[in-house]
Specification:
The protein is mainly β. The protein contains one helix and 15 strands, in the order βββββββββββββββα. It is 4% helix and 48% strand.
């Protein structure tokens, strides 16, 4: 039924959960998936995060995949970002892929980055 290579990426198939009655002050980081239903005052870094309908995140969100159903106040940096109709985002979004449902609230800049550009390191030498 579940495989070690399922969508949660960490190999264990179970996301880390911040429940609705939980308030976190500080940064969260991990290699797998996170489900946030409570309040986080800090940065979030992981492979995939789902921010629940009643959740609030105040800080930068930097993950491969971000699903927003709740409120984010801060910058989002991700390869893939999806905002549901209930999403409220105040801050810039840097993305390669973006989907926004009708009804979502977004205040900030949408900055599309190229997949190749985000992986290149440009070295500039002095010319003669």
């Amino acid at each position: 039924m579940f495989s070690k290579t399922d969508r949660y990426g960490a190999g264990n198939g179970v996301p880390s959960i911040i429940s609705a009655d939980m308030n976190v002050s500080g940064n969260l980081s991990g290699d797998g998936a996170m489900q946030i239903d409570g309040t986080v005052n800090g940065d979030v870094r992981c492979a995939e995060v789902t921010i629940g309908r009643n959740a609030q995140v105040v800080g930068q969100v930097e993950c491969d995949t971000v699903h927003v159903h709740g409120t984010v106040t801060g910058e989002i940096r991700a390869r893939s970002v999806s905002l549901s109709a209930s999403a409220r985002v105040t801050g810039d979004i840097q993305h390669e892929e973006l989907s926004i449902e009708a009804g979502a609230y977004m205040e900030g800049q949408l900055l599309r980055r190229d997949a190749q550009q985000s992986r290149l390191n440009l070295v500039v030498g002095e010319g003669s």
